[in-house]
Amino acid sequence: MYTANPTRYADMQYRRCGLSGVLLPALSLGFWHNFGQVTPEEQSRAIARAAFDAGITHFDLANNYGPDPGAAELRLGRMLQDDFKPHRDELFIATKAAYDMWDGPYGSWASRKHLIASLDQSLSRLRLNYVDLFYCHRYDPQTPLEETLQTLVDIVRAGKALYIGLSRWPLQAAKRGYEYLRQHDVPCLIYQGRLNLFDQAPIHEGTLNAAANAGAGFIAFSPLAQGLLTDRYLNGIPADSRIAHDPRFLKAEALTPQMLTRIQALNDLAAQRGESLAAMALAWILHHQQVTSVIIGASSPQQLRRNLSCLQSPPFTDEEIERLNNIVA
Ligand SMILES: NC(=O)c1ccc[n+]([C@@H]2O[C@H](COP(=O)([O-])OP(=O)(O)OC[C@H]3O[C@@H](n4cnc5c(N)ncnc54)[C@H](OP(=O)(O)O)[C@@H]3O)[C@@H](O)[C@H]2O)c1
């Protein structure tokens, strides 16, 4: 029997998502890894409880998170029944569709057929009547943009999602999306893109500013570059790490001598600032004012709690920003 921490809202920061009425926690929890069948269910449950107990009210899922695809939603569905039932309205739950989910011509991409069928399946796995946020997970160059966007509008009209988000859409398509959604009175709540010290494309390509100009928030995924921006790999590849147990997504080849030199230099800078590399990496993302939240992954409650320390990070000096940029250049 789970009893939520009564002081869970004391220390988390909540940031307004674009021009909307929604506040999101500075740190959100992602369910891509550690919530599938390869992870003991009690471990997943402990991570989700630790997050909620720390004021992390936003859980980020997708139809295909697992393994197997759908497993993460099934797990959260059980937790919503067992642990979080009295707290449903304290939670902001997102799911997505458009990546490969089931066999045949309707199991992927962003047609009306796929998006609506997939969301119905997600709601059933999650045991929810609606999600707070539904994303089109990727841009579909074959489906007319209007078909995808009108479907997102209709999903909100049907009460299956409260808000709409776009993830990994190229800049020009995202801009057309913001415009269409605004014109149809369902403004895009948020854009989800990869942003971390090693991948600053959303800053340089204008994605961050475009979202802000459209009144949408921005949420960063893989903020720790899947664990590279921590001390995890400084002394080899631990047996319980993502590289060791899930090399499909993070490969040992990523640990080149040049990459290890950069990680070590970042780790040294973080130590001079009196914090961990993970905390510094998260704080660096959050110091961009267009960013609403970062979606962290965690393989244990302890890891998640350690990452909360980024909320106490000292502000960056101009000299530190210059050093950071030189290290990752
Ligand atoms: N929209 C999209 O297309 C998309 C794509 C990718 C992800 N996402 C979302 O973003 C979420 C986060 O992605 P991510 O898991 O790649 O995020 P991440 O925060 O960059 O990486 C998380 C991993 O880093 C390691 N880690 C975390 N904190 C650590 C610490 N303090 N010390 C050492 N290692 C630490 C853990 O890996 P170990 O297993 O090694 O412990 C953890 O599972 C996903 O769950 C998903 O919700 C969205």
Q: What is the residue-averaged pLDDT?
A: 97
- Summed up, the helix count is 12
- Strand element count: 10
The CATH homologous superfamily is termed: NADP-dependent oxidoreductase domain
Topology summary:
Elements: E1 14-16, E2 23-25, E3 27-30, H1 41-53, E4 58-60, H2 71-82, E5 92-97, H3 112-126, E6 131-136, H4 145-157, E7 161-167, H5 171-183, E8 190-194, H6 201-204, H7 207-213, E9 217-221, H8 242-245, H9 257-272, H10 277-286, E10 291-296, H11 301-307, H12 318-328
Parallel strand pairs: 3-4, 3-10, 4-5, 5-6, 6-7, 7-8, 8-9, 9-10
Antiparallel strand pairs: 1-2
The structure holds NADP nicotinamide-adenine-dinucleotide phosphate.
Report what the structure shows.
This protein is of the alpha/beta class. The protein has one domain (about 25-329): Alpha-Beta Barrel (TIM Barrel). About 40% of the residues lie in helices and about 15% in strands. It is built from 12 helices and 10 strands. The chain has an 8-stranded parallel β-barrel, surrounded by 4 helices. Helix 1 packs parallel to helix 11, helix 4 (about 145-155) packs across helix 5 and helix 9 (about 255-270) runs antiparallel to helix 12 (about 320-329). The protein starts with 13 loop residues before the first strand and ends with a helix. The model has no long low-confidence stretch (mean pLDDT about 95). NADP nicotinamide-adenine-dinucleotide phosphate binds next to strand 10 and helix 11.
